[in-house]
Amino acid sequence: MDAGGDQVLSSHPQPLISRNYKGDVPMSKIEHFMPLLVQREEEGALTPLLSYGEVHFLWIKHSNLYLVATTLKNANASLVYSFLYKTVEVFCEYFKELEEESIRDNFVIVYELLDELMDFGFPQTTDSKILQEYITQQSNKLETGKSRVPPTVTNAVSWRSEGIKYKKNEVFIDVIESVNLLVNANGSVLLSEIVGTIKLKVFLSGMPELRLGLNDRVLFELTGRKYLGDLSSGKYGIGKGLANICRMCNRILHAKGQFKKQSVANGVEISVPVPSDADSPRFKTSVGSAKYVPEKNVVIWSIKSFPGGKEYLMRAHFGLPSVEKEEVEGRPPIGVKFEIPYFTVSGIQVRYMKIIEKSGYQALPWVRYITQSGGKAARLAGTVG
Fold this sequence. Notes:
With about 375 residues, the protein is of the alpha+beta class. Helices cover about 15% and strands about 40% of the residues. It has helices spanning about 35-45, 75-95, 100-105, 105-115, 130-135, 150-155, 215-220; strands at about 5-10, 15-20, 50, 55-60, 65-70, 120, 120-125, 170-185, 190-205, 210-215, 235-240, 245-250, 250-255, 265-275, 280-285, 290-295, 300-305, 310-320, 335-340, 350-355, 365-375.
């Protein structure tokens, strides 16, 4: 980053607090920042980086405060701004509200934090949880003779403390797939995709190494599926999708579960848009129940359990005082919500989970598969009338 110094200013030209990390930028240079900012703002040419002679001001605003980093060099701007926002985050963790009063009331702690956040122009410890282990609001000064550097500061990872122990070592793995489907008025599939996420909830002692193995990529290539992402990141996408297909014929809505017969979709909810002036609703369903929600202009068909391969019908009748001709493109889509436990549409499976820890303890991995509706729905030609 190589920034010369940090300043915290209010709307007044003089800084509330400052820290010169390298000594290469004179502290008096900050006096030019506020007049320059006001001038650029009046000209309508305000930018997040302002320059006065050889000095560059990189600044952000939070509440009524300006946090300004000064440098003489061509510093890494993205890193500087990332540091400034991280500084705001740390101050908010300490003082709840970051404003002029909280800075004035906590000068000692602010200076201690600035010394730990950066050293000679280079960011150091910016994790507020680590900082709170040895910079507390109860004591304004660190007892250097007795103080001990927390292990997390020198640890390989800052997000996990040393010495963590669990009575029962377990790992819970959730493979969650969302199915997105978009169909045009002619019944052609415009979009059919599966977006998957692998989530882990870990209760393991020490600092274990986890190795997750999934079924072979060759399996997907043989079945014609295509990877759209990197499984190591925990998210993936599969090109070909499969979903509940809803089809409207006149006043009848057909819903068919196009998934394996041994699987069951739970909590199915189909939302069918209707004209805003519809009234006197009557429904007849082969399974489940339907209700009219006038404030949302939809009919909601609820089915508690929907086995794969089954097809159900809903008949609806409305009175329409006036005829509203809507363009097909302007009609809202039919929405489908569902969840299928113990099933993945893509066929992805967890083959193994290896847990390696120096103490050699035994751990139990648990795997759960869930398929659910995604954020996209089927856009169809028919409406209920």
